[in-house]
Amino acid sequence: MFLTAAGAPYDFRYRTLTSEPYEIVLVLLSVPLFNEALQDVFGANAANARLRDLSGFEDPQLIALLQQLRDEAMRPAASRVFVRGIAQAIAIHLARNYTAVTENGRGETSGLPGFKLRRVTDWMAEHLAEEFSLARLAEQACMSEFHFNRLFKRATGVPPSQYQIKLRLDAARRLLRETKKSVITIANEVGYSNPSHFAQLFRKETGLAPTEYRREG
């Protein structure tokens, strides 16, 4: 999934893993509806809350809400009341999980500009197996390391090094579900030459060892 606030044009790239047909679903929430959710979640501090830009993330709870929205929209006589209820639930979920509260009100930037964030996260996804380098990431954003690190964390909620770990483990989960490659091979493909270290990180993220995750999938 891809998430962004209104404003500048939003470009995204994706790659299909199989020849199976697929759908792209675009969901737009109105500003008044989202502001209502921010008010409910943050109260008097709602004016300082900002939606973060995120690229290529997974969220089972949000997917379930979007599926309900899609199913209702496909009905011959969709209910406006039901659609608004789902939209409110989506807005609250986004406000709770994907907003950052700034200190200086609306004049303060919430993080990297969307196009720079997407450039960096796309580059990280394409270079998963490479050793983490803050300098190379900052170069992609045309910023100093200090400034980039601060704005990236503000935009995503985590520092670049932790974001790379998440990308690697997300890729590992997909490979475990969709291929028969060995755990060692998968660990190497996502950047971990030490299988034990990979298994430790994977268990910390998912609560399961890689082999257990594959069996349950």
Structure description:
A two-stranded antiparallel sheet has the order 1-3. The chain is globular. It has helices at residues 31-42, 60-73, 80-97, 114-126, 134-141, 145-156, 160-178, 183-189, 195-206, 210-216; strands spanning 2-3, 49-51, 54-55, 99-101. It is mainly alpha-helical and 217 residues long.
Tell me the layout of helices and strands:
Blueprint (H helix, E strand, L loop, with lengths): L1 E2 L27 H12 L6 E3 L2 E2 L4 H14 L6 H18 L1 E3 L12 H13 L7 H8 L3 H12 L3 H19 L4 H7 L5 H12 L3 H7 L1
Antiparallel strand pairs: 1-3, 2-4
What descriptive keywords fit this protein?
single chain; two-stranded antiparallel sheet; 10 helices
Query: Percent of residues in helical segments?
Result: 55-70%
- Tell me what portion of residues adopts beta-strand conformation: under 5%
Number of helices: 10
Gap from first CA to last CA? 20 Å
Low-confidence stretches: 105-109
The rough form would be described as globular
Q: Provide the residue-averaged pLDDT.
A: 86
Report on the biggest sheet. Answer: 2 strands, antiparallel
Q: What's the gyration radius in Å? A: 19 Å
Backbone structural class: mainly alpha
Number of strands: 4
Order of helices and strands: EHEEHHEHHHHHHH
Strand order of the largest sheet: 1-3
